[in-house]
Amino acid sequence: HTPLGVVLLQEILRYNHLITVISQSLSDLEKGIKGLVVMSEDLEEIFRCINEAKVPAMWSKAYPSHKPLGSWTRDLVQRVDQFFKWAHTGAMPLIFYLSYFTFPTGFLTAVLQTSARANSISVDTLSWEFVVQILDDVNITGQPKDGVYIKGMYLEGAGWDRKNCCLIEANAMQLVCEMPTIHFKPAELKKKPGRGIYACPCYYYPDRAGTAERASFVVSVDLKSGACTPDHWIKRGTALLLSLDN
Predict the structure, then answer these.
(1) Exposure of 15 by Cβ count < 10 A (0-12 exposed, 13-18 middle, 19+ buried)?
(2) pLDDT tens-digit series, residues 104-139
(3) pLDDT by residue (tens digit) across 21-40?
(4) Beta bridge partners of 128
(5) 3-state secondary structure of 24
(6) Does this model's pTM top 0.85?
(7) Quick check: 55 and 75 in contact, CB under 8 A?
(8) What distance, in Å, lies between the first and last C-alpha atoms of the chain?
(9) Which of 113, 150, 163, 211 has the fewest C-beta atoms under 10 angstroms from its C-beta?
């Protein structure tokens, strides 16, 4: 009953429920097309969405996404695979895709709780330090002593200088760029970020406002602002996204 174990169980339950809903609705739709059952409004809606390559509303309740049906399905397979491997091996992934969690804030809180228990301190005194990795992922051979390696973030409104580990202007016609792996490291009584640090907001999907039921904001990630001031990136609307439209 570790905090991360609880998060894993909750994620598995949500994805199992989603897979059951998808499987049942497709089975019912097949029967409806064959004339074996009456086509309800829900089934007609699913049929229309599949024809238009959209995700049916019934399927998108587990987590928000703007992806078309093909990309959404491939993404779902990758999401399930992360939790399947974690559950079956009992070993945490070396690198977590934060975007694969239906509730990434719950996962991040569990990481802080794990660190607090290990160091016998109050979780309220912990916040995050962010270390953007310079080397490629193949050089990551083990879990960090504290915290987790996070991948699957996209930078919108800026580019990333891997050599100097800071924000730069995006290339022409470049809307987003993939961020390198970031070490999310719990830190006790962390000081306020100094000058030259941009507190970059991270959102679950491109709709930054979210919905009435669910906010899109996940966490602020401190990034070096480079040659420009943090105000420059605020005006640019620079942010991290966990998923894209395609």
Answers:
(1) buried
(2) 999 999 999 999 999 899 998 999 999 999 988 888
(3) 999 999 999 999 999 988 88
(4) 186
(5) helix
(6) yes
(7) no
(8) 37
(9) 163
